[in-house]
Each structure stands twice: as structure tokens, then as C-alpha cells.
Write a structure and sequence with these properties.
With 377 residues, the protein is an alpha/beta fold. The chain has 13 helices and 14 strands. Helices cover 33% and strands 16% of the residues.
């Protein structure tokens, strides 16, 4: 099966907005190939309309939002009833579209346990966060193929006689274009970058605060949501204390969420990047993060908690060895910054850039297309 001139429904756990994750990037890249792409937002109980299709900010991408006709929280107590009722919601979506789907490409592990209900010619399940519950595994059972960004996630489906393929997170074209400019920035202070939702409860705030406090000569710049009104990718209020801490630090800049073109330009001005999650709380369990590919595209050094997908690639990420704590992360951070010229040598930077450029969304879709062509579809 080729991935051109098809009608494709991309199902996302995060709604369309300023912050783009893998789901949005796949939708955009598929649209460039001449596909008609529908992007299904999570159901919105406060939506003004029962069902709405609106044009996205790209040609061939349309955004679907619907208001649920029953309380979706019942999926936590009465999953069997939820799965029965959600079939009627799916039927409504298909009816409103008015024409059949060639492909359903789902990144959503929680809401739709039976992808066959979408009546598409072919179904893809593409989880990017840990799956542990039976209904999440059930979703995989109803797919024709399963892709994921980590082998740990794929291992949950080992018992299924369905093809399973590891595909890295991708890199959007915005970062590719910015890297080609090869601009030289004259920073007066060393700048540390971080992108991501600051409302995420799995951030290791204690370690983060320690690093910021102990390096007053560095500038820490954050791109991403720090209040719920800005967010299209979820979060909660448990990090309010951390966000208030960031707001009053003289060496911290909070930029908020930015569109990908602006974000790409800003990241290339950084000298290093920091990733600081509590692996035990992390929804990805420290296996992989979308932001890594974007950091690598700049060539600059990354200092991080343990990330299993890159554990055998110290040339790409400097990470702590421990899986259960970040006690050594402040020490690793200081040692890296003290030797920044070495870790940001031309050779080291080119190695990181080359890896990122081998994993653009365009190339990932090309790889997936080749895999699909080998199946009897």
C-alpha cells in the first residue's frame, strides 16, 4: 500500500493546537503527499457544537471535534459499557464524513478499543507512550500493524500475531530548514533550552530547581505550556509551585507555546538542552521523547535522565546511568557545561545532526510505506 492520495483518519490523544507532537506532524506530512487527512481531536464535553469539521492550518488537513453524548469517565469503572456506547459515537463520525476511509492511523491508546469499528480498509496502531491496561492491548489486537517509538512498548504485543515495527520519533521540516541556515549566534551567556509541557506531573522538579539555582550564570529558556489556558496537550495543576519558582528566577525565561517554525529558530540559538523527568512517574517510562530529535537537529549537547532508546548512544545524549533516580544529573550537568566546547565540537555536533536528519517525518513515512507495501493489503 502506498501512502499517497488516500483518505486517512489520524486519531490523536491531544487536540490540534500550537504545540505539535508526532500526531500532528504525521498528519501534516501525510497531507503533503496528496492524502486527504482528517485529524480526530479527543472528544470535548464543552464543545459548542455536537460535531464540527474545520480546516486546519495546512492544505488537505481537516480537524474533527465532537461533543460526547455520554460521560466518558465511565470507561474507568464500566469499560464494557463504555466500549459498547463508543461504537455509536464512531458511527456518527463516519456518517458525518460521508465517505469511506482508506486508513485509520491511531495514536490514541485509551478511547477506541476496536479500530475495526471505523470501517477503514487498513488500520494502524501507533502508541508512543507506555501501554499496560488490557483495553490498550485490545486496541493492538484490532490493528493490521503496530508501530511504536520504543521496543518496550512493542513488547507488550509480543503475544499477538501482528507485525510490529520500531520507528523512531520524527523530525519536522521546520527544523531541517533551520539547520541548513548554519547561522552563528553570539550568546553572551550560555543558554540552556527546554521544550515541553510544564504542567506534566512527571517532571523531576526538585532536580530541575537545584540545577537552575546552582547555575545563576546560565540562562534557562522554556518553550511550552505553563498554564492550562495555553495547553492543547493536557496537564494538571500539580506543578504550580514549580512554575511559580520558574517565574521568579532571574535566569529563567518562559516563552510559552510557540508554532514549530518559530520554535525551530529559537532552539538553534541554544548552547545545550536539559531533559529532567522522574522515570517512575513518566508516561514514557524514560524510553523515548519526541523532543530529543528536535534537540539533536541543532547539534547541541543534550543532558538527560536515563532514556533507554539512546542508552547505547552516548555520542547523542549524555544521560545518567541510573533508571530509578536523577541523583547524578546535577553533577553530570555541571561537568558537561564546564566542558561545553568539547561536547559541542564540530564533529560531535555533526554526529547529532546526521542522526536527526536520518529520521525526518518524510523519511519515516517512506519507511512505513515500504513496510506496508510488503503486506497483503
Amino acid at each position: 500500500m502506498n501512502l499517497k492520495n488516500k483518505t486517512i483518519l489520524v486519531i490523536s490523544p491531544q487536540r490540534w493546537g500550537k504545540m505539535h507532537l508526532s500526531k500532528q506532524h504525521y498528519a501534516l506530512e501525510l497531507a503533503k503527499l496528496g492524502n486527504k487527512v482528517y485529524f480526530l481531536n479527543p472528544p470535548h464535553k464543552n464543545a459548542a457544537e455536537k460535531f464540527k469539521i474545520e480546516q486546519g492550518n495546512a492544505e488537505n488537513v481537516q480537524i474533527i471535534t465532537y461533543k460526547p453524548s455520554f460521560p466518558y469517565f465511565i470507561r474507568f469503572q464500566l469499560r464494557w459499557l463504555y466500549d459498547f456506547l463508543v461504537r455509536f459515537e464512531i458511527r456518527k463520525v463516519i456518517k458525518k464524513l460521508g465517505h469511506p476511509l482508506d486508513i485509520v492511523w491511531s495514536f490514541e491508546p485509551n478511547l477506541y478499543s476496536n479500530l475495526k469499528c471505523f470501517k477503514a480498509r487498513f488500520t494502524i496502531f501507533h502508541p508512543v507512550d507506555e501501554v499496560i491496561y488490557p483495553y490498550q492491548i485490545q486496541t493492538g489486537k484490532t490493528a493490521d500493524i503496530i508501530f511504536s517509538v520504543t521496543n518496550e512498548i512493542l513488547s507488550n504485543f509480543d503475544h499477538l500475531k501482528i507485525k510490529k515495527v520500531h520507528v523512531h520519533h520524527g523530525l519536522s521540516n521546520y527544523f531541517v530548514k533551520e539547520g541548513l541556515k548554519q547561522q552563528v549566534y553570539s550568546n553572551t551567556n550560555t543558554r540552556i533550552g527546554y521544550i515541553g509541557n510544564l504542567l506534566r506531573p512527571e517532571i523531576d522538579t526538585d532536580t530541575f530547581e537545584s540545577i537552575i539555582t546552582n547555575h545563576p550564570n546560565l540562562i534557562f529558556e522554556f518553550w511550552g505550556t505553563y498554564n492550562t489556558k495555553q495547553s492543547n496537550i493536557g496537564g494538571n495543576f500539580s506543578n504550580n509551585r514549580f512554575i511559580e519558582f520558574l517565574k521568579i528566577q532571574p535566569n529563567v525565561i518562559l516563552h510559552g507555546p510557540k508554532p514549530p517554525p518559530e520554535l525551530a529558530k529559537c532552539l538553534h540559538q541554544m548552547d545545550a538542552f536539559l531533559i529532567c523527568y522522574d522515570v517512575q512517574k513518566d508516561q514514557s517510562k524514560g524510553t523515548n521523547y519526541h523532543k530529543i530529535m528536535e534537540y539533536l537537529s541543532t547539534g547541541k549537547v543534550i543532558i538527560s535522565n536515563n532514556v533507554t532508546t539512546f542508552s547505547k548512544h552516548p555520542e547523542l545524549i549524555r544521560m545518567v546511568l541510573e533508571r530509578d533516580n536523577n541523583d547524578q544529573l546535577p553533577k553530570l550537568f555541571k561537568e558537561t557545561i564546564d566542558n561545553l566546547k568539547e561536547y559541542n565540537s564540530p564533529k560531535a555536533m555533526q554526529t547529532r545532526r546526521d542522526f536527526a536528519l536520518e529520521n525526518t517525518y518524510k523519511l519515516q513515512i517512506s519507511r512505513i510505506e515500504k513496510i506496508l507495501s510488503q503486506l497483503e493489503v
